[in-house]
Amino acid sequence: MMGLKNRQSNDVSTGRTGRFNLITDVPGVQVGHTTIDDGNVHTGVTAILPQTDNVFLQKLPAATHVINGFGKSAGLVQIEELGTLETPLVLTNTFGVGTALNALTKAMLAQNSDIGDTTSTVNPVILECNDGDVSDIRKMAIQETDVTMALENSATQFEEGAVGAGRGMMCYDLKGGIGSSSRLVDVDQQQFTIGTLVMSNFGFLRDLVIAGESIGQLIFDYLKQAEKKEEHGSIITIVATDAPLDARQLKRLAKRASVGITRTGSFIGHGSGEIVVAFSTANRVAHYPQNNLESVIRYNDDKIDQFFRSVVGSVDESVRSSLVHAESVVDRKGKLRMSLPAILEKMSQDETINHELITKVQQELGLI
Fold first, then answer.
1. Domain boundary assignment for the chain
2. Which Gene3D superfamilies does the record associate with it (predicted)?
3. Is 127 helix (H, G, I), strand (E, B) or coil?
4. Among residues 309, 181, 287, 301, which one has the least CA distance to residue 244?
5. Element (H, E) at 105
6. Which CATH superfamily is domain 15-294+303-364 in?
7. In CA terms, which of 205, 240, 251, 283 is 20 to 30 Å from 28?
């Protein structure tokens, strides 16, 4: 399968992509997965390392934005209050939050002998979506070793789709999961990068929009399946940049993620958890500062629109990328949860379907 990562976008409306078209195009950012497939358990862990240096000692400016707060994440309150990130970010399923919190805490203790002894405690950041439709979430399969493995496996290139924490996730009633993208922003002879990563687990099939086409409605009619009555899904979005943005500006950046999400068709339902965390690798905040007064370079608010535009385009593509790279999975009840590429391929062979529209969408997604 080709997919979006084989195309480098130069569309004025969304901007140019980075080298890998992944969040890891932001220098220093790495991502790792642990995927669990065992009988009726389809789940996992995804870890995002925000920098290669010790993030507890060199904290990063950060912000969080809760679009709709039906979620059980950990660590967001302190980010909101202090505007800094001091640990990696771990994504998992809803019942894995406590285990992931303990595992990430232990990893930080192992790296920093002063935590909880001669200095403060630490604020691990865990984000979740409920994969209980596909996986037997009651088994609470996530172990601390799964988190440790994801952290240790982190790299600049990583898989997308039904992997890691995204293994059991559904997006627009199709197989979803982990998706990522990046955009380049040119400023005064300098180049900055915006990178996003999503864990997609939301949406009604008939609402899905790709290339301006209501492809979800066409698929919904083709499958003749019953529509779910309520939206209980979620999407976690991570935004990273190397641009010198402070916590207030990062919150503004995080808010624009909702535009990218809704471009794909979401209306952000009552029972859906949409949470965004944004951080910058510039202007690090020392845990042990040498001076009481600090000088930082901050981007001009009047010129920030190009970053907003880039976030919207990157999040939009990240959602689509989670659909494109996901594989079909048999869920905990034995039902096949089909991927978008598999359905489009099946529909392209049906003579009763509008092949022109299917081809347009496949081309937009880089499938043909």
1. 15-294+303-364
2. L-amino peptidase D-ALA esterase/amidase
3. strand
4. 301
5. helix 97-111
6. L-amino peptidase D-ALA esterase/amidase (3.60.70.12)
7. 251
Cα–Cα distance for residue pair 280/311, rounded to 1 Å: 13
Residue whose C-alpha is closest to residue 215's, from 9, 11, 362, 368 = 362
- Per-residue model confidence as pLDDT tens digits over 217-270: 999 999 987 777 777 789 999 999 999 999 999 999 999 999 999 999 999 888
Give CA 278 to chain center in angstroms: 11
Instruction: Answer for the pair 232, 271: CB distance below 8 angstroms, yes or no.
Output: yes
Per-residue pLDDT band at 79 (split at 50, 70, 90): very high
Using CA atoms, how far residue 302 sits from 149, 154, 298, 299, 308, in Å, is 43, 36, 12, 9, 12
Residue type present at position 128: E
The DSSP result for 225-261, as a single string, is: PPPPSS---EEEEEEEE-S---HHHHHHHHHHHHHHH
> Token pair of 234, please?
């979620």
In our burial notation (b when 16+ CB lie closer than 10 A, e otherwise), range 79-95 reads: beeebbbbbbbbbbbbb
pLDDT, tens digit, for every residue of 298-354?
888 988 999 999 999 999 999 999 999 999 999 999 999 999 999 999 999 998 888
Task: Kindly report the number of other CB atoms within 10 A of residue 27's CB atom.
Answer: 14
C-alpha span between 250 and 256 (Å, rounded): 10
Tell me the two tokens of residue 322. Answer: 């989670």
Residues with Cβ within 8 Å of 252's Cβ and at least 6 positions away in sequence, in order, are 304, 308
b or e along 190-229 (b: 16 or more beta carbons within 10 Å of the residue's beta carbon)? eebbbbbbbbbbbbbbbbbbbeebebbbbbbeeeeeeeee
